[in-house]
Amino acid sequence: MKTTNPSITGGCACGAISYASTSTPLFSFHCQCRACQKMTGTGHSSAFICRDAETEFSGQLTWFERQAPSGNVVKQGFCATCGSPVVNRNSGYPDKVYLTAGSMNEPSGFKPQKVVHRDEGHAWDLVDPEV
Ligand SMILES: [Zn+2]
Ligand SMILES: [Zn+2]
After folding, report:
1. Which terminus of the chain has a lower count of CB atoms within 10 Å, N or C?
2. Helices of type H across the chain
3. 129 CA to middle of ligand 1, Å?
4. Ligand nearest to the Cα of 36, by number
């Protein structure tokens, strides 16, 4: 185990995949882009960035790769059994992981700092305008 005394733990809906991280979240955000709408099946994703080296996964993630508008390759890691999106990786930030807020065991600890791609959001998916 790389991690000792993890401050963040979580996993997918069926429990096949879990993670533990000692990283403090470096950045927390909502993203209303179309790719995140497709990934989550709803109006936006909510995620936070941790250091890969301080984050340990167990279970078999399945990866879907796509090209982001920036040119970076984004890999979306999900559970093939229950379909939960758990983690993203971005080729532009290979030492970081993007964990989904809803997958946390204590999601109330999520403190979004920014809304990205708000212009792609929908009227039915109002995200806190103060963020
Ligand atoms: Zn699962
Ligand atoms: Zn997005």
Report:
1. N
2. 34-40
3. 32
4. 2
